[in-house]
Design a protein that fits this description.
Length: 217
């Protein structure tokens, strides 16, 4: 059910009901939600479509969350979920930030010259990975998140985005709260940087001229 606003309704009386499809793992430690709120939570000017979360105990609160806008490649999102599903304890850290950068650079991405230990980009400078302060409203078990207004002073988490033309808006964006284990973000990065061919019926106008396509028979 979509959020709604009644005529003459005051802000304090307003009710917002989300359109949500919820998928919960058998152990109740991980779940994914498709969100279509009346007033969307945005990343880079784009509405959030998927929120994926995990917790340490079935009756506990989310230990971390990751957010994805609609145009995040489905294969990348699926690989992230596959890695999450393979985790026995989805909130326990098993790697360091370097694992994320190794996953991307092993597939041809370049380290950020200014921050080689916290960022990478693809050779066309369209796709980006960055470890830094998370945006506002990103949910995490770290209590500092509740006090943060975003920016470099907030808890550090991985951010990813595609910006085909600088200054003309993002194609998609993803945000990982500070508690997301680095090995899971590494699975996302490895899939994002993969050069394996993909089947597409429609190509994005903003990146059409940059894609490698097999010759027609």
């Amino acid at each position: 059910m979509r959020g709604r606003r009644e005529p003459q309704e005051t802000p304090e009386d307003r009710q917002v009901v989300r359109s949500t499809v919820l998928h919960i793992g058998p152990d109740a430690l991980r779940w994914a939600q498709w969100l279509l709120p009346d007033e969307p939570f945005h990343l880079g000017g784009l509405p959030i479509s998927w929120q994926i979360s995990a917790r340490a105990h079935p009756d506990g609160l989310a230990g971390w969350s990751a957010y994805f806008t609609p145009e995040v490649p489905g294969e990348v999102l699926a690989d992230f979920l596959t890695a999450l599903d393979a985790r026995e304890q989805p909130t326990v850290p098993l790697a360091d930030p370097e694992a994320v950068l190794r996953a991307a650079t092993a597939r041809g991405w370049l380290r950020d010259i200014d921050r080689p230990g916290a960022g990478a980009m693809d050779p066309t400078f369209t796709g980006h990975l960055h470890l830094g302060g998370v945006p506002p409203l990103i949910q995490d078990a770290d209590p500092r998140t509740l006090l943060s207004e975003g920016g470099e002073d907030s808890p550090s988490g991985w951010q990813a985005w595609a910006e085909p033309t600088p200054g003309e808006g993002y194609l998609w964006a993803a945000s990982f709260s500070s508690g997301v284990p680095h090995d899971l973000v590494a699975a996302f990065a490895a899939s994002l940087a993969s050069t394996a061919p993909l089947l597409r019926r429609v190509l994005p106008d903003s990146t059409r001229d940059r894609l490698l396509r097999p010759p027609l028979d």
